[in-house]
Write a structure and sequence with these properties.
The chain is mainly α. Helices cover 54% and strands 6% of the residues. The protein is globular and about 40 Å long.
Length: 162
């Protein structure tokens, strides 16, 4: 089976297992199905072994990862008009939380950044996933990138396109 089907099968057999897609494909027609299948990360095989070890630790801590070149490609496609408009049912605060998720921040980091309780952040994350019909933080991060809510070249979680 291919990596997408393998990811599906792993997630069905063990939903708590974290999966990182390690591939040579940067096309969004491969990225989105992998994430939708349950991958918590999408990385390219040319990664430095130390960076791969760091990525494994990051994903095991519940954070999402997207290889920078894949994220840059998605951003370029959005800049060229390849994006649909954002779902306007999100509140301003939910958009801020979504932007922070896309920057790989944990709930605790988001809480500190936005001066909220961690419980409030968890509620916002749950609402975002429900409103956007997404399964997890990785899908939320990809949604934010695809919709132009973040500039991954800027370290600030509130950096967005206008």
């Amino acid at each position: 089976v291919d990596g997408i089907e393998a990811t599906r099968r792993i997630k069905v057999a063990s939903p708590a297992t974290k999966v990182i897609a390690l591939t040579s494909f940067t096309d969004d027609d491969m990225v989105f199905p992998a994430v939708k299948a349950g991958a918590s990360g999408y990385l390219l095989k040319d990664m430095d072994p130390k960076d791969l070890a760091d990525a494994i630790r990051t994903v095991s801590n519940g954070e999402a990862l997207l290889h920078p070149s894949v994220a840059a490609k998605l951003m370029k496609e959005m800049a060229d008009g390849g994006s649909e408009s954002i779902d306007h049912t999100l509140t301003k605060r939910e958009v801020e939380v979504l932007q922070a998720i896309a920057h790989g921040m944990s709930n605790k980091e988001i809480a500190n950044h936005l001066v909220l309780s961690e419980k409030t952040v968890k509620t916002h994350v749950s609402n975002i996933l429900q409103k956007l019909h997404l399964a997890d933080r990785t899908q939320a991060a990809l949604y934010a990138v695809k919709e132009g809510l973040v500039d991954l070249n800027d370290d600030s979680p509130s950096a967005s396109r206008s």
